[in-house]
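> example.struct
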């Protein structure tokens, strides 16, 4: 009997993961016009060259999801309330202690860029959901705040921040996937 329950659990997890993967692909399709506009050589993008993203089209409170080097990333234009909520957290209380200021670029606090795979088992969390207003991962119930930091649920670490630079006030270039914030 125990093995049947285990099997059902596996199947449920698989379905959730499959849903996450589909969401990632959908997001990539939605943002593809941005990427194709900014980086004409799609073959180069696929090979892993840095990618530039136009931020001007993302409204305050909105986010986009892009696919780069085969992985999804969130680019979020945070509201003042979201920035304040992220900054007001007692960092010592966090599972993966990082101040919000270490996860954004100085002078550009409204823009949060993170990897979009949950640090538990890799699903793609849902934006503007969960107990902390950031992201909620439906696979096993991880809640991330408006800085992409894990606040509740099984994910062990924050959503990683990739290496990127601002090439202008409305344009970023993502150059590396490592989370070194
Ligand atoms: S993959 Fe398990 S909580 Fe996100």
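> example.seq
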């Amino acid at each position: 009997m125990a093995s049947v329950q285990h099997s059902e659990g596996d199947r449920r997890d698989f379905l959730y993961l499959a849903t996450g993967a589909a969401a990632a692909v959908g997001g990539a399709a939605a943002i593809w016009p941005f990427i194709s506009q900014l980086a004409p050589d799609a073959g180069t993008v696929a090979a892993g060259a840095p990618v530039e993203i136009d931020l001007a089209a993302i409204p305050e409170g909105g986010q986009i999801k892009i696919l780069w080097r085969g992985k999804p990333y969130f680019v979020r234009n945070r509201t003042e309330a979201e920035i304040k909520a992220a900054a007001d957290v007692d960092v010592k209380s966090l599972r993966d202690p990082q101040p919000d200021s270490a996860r954004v670029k100085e002078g550009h606090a409204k823009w949060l860029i993170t990897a979009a795979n949950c640090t538990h088992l890799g699903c793609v969390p849902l934006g503007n959901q969960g107990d902390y207003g950031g992201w909620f991962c439906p696979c096993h119930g991880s809640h991330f705040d408006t800085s992409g930091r894990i606040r509740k649920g099984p994910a062990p670490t924050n959503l990683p921040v990739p290496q990127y630079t601002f090439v202008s006030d409305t344009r970023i270039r993502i150059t590396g996937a490592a989370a070194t914030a």
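> remarks
The pocket of FE2/S2 (inorganic) cluster is lined by residues 118, 120-123, 137, 139-142, 153-155 (CB under 6 Å).
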